[in-house]
Amino acid sequence: MKTMTCKQLGGACDKAFQGNTFEDIVELSKAHGMEMFQKQDPDHMEAMQRVMVMMQQPQAMQDFMEEKKKAFEALAED
Fold first, then answer.
1. Which residues are within 8 A (CB) of 5 and not within 5 positions of it... i.e. 6 or more apart?
2. Separation CA 10–CA 69 (nearest Å)
3. How far is Cα 48 from Cα 69, in angstroms, rounded to an integer?
């Protein structure tokens, strides 16, 4: 199991997500993002806006996700 924070994933806070795979972490991060969107948390809204801009450029989004996955893979097990 490994841990990444919201900030490590491009978000706005230090909330920690734990998972056995990068995909597990991404799902937890998405749920957290949806919760913060519902609360209209300003810091998270700004981070989401950056991701939305990136999504307009598929290669940029793919590069971003690959970078985050490599960071996950480089982490030591908890």
1. 11, 13, 14, 15, 16, 17
2. 12
3. 18
| Residue 56 one-letter amino acid | Q
pLDDT tens digits for range 60-70: 999 999 999 99
Q: What share of the chain is helix, strand, coil (3-state, %, to 5)?
A: 65, 10, 25
Number of neighbouring beta carbons within 10 Å of residue 33: 20
**Amino acid, res. 13:** C
* pTM of this structure: 0.90
Work out the angle between the directed axes of helices 42-55 and 22-39 (0-180°, nearest 10). Answer: 120
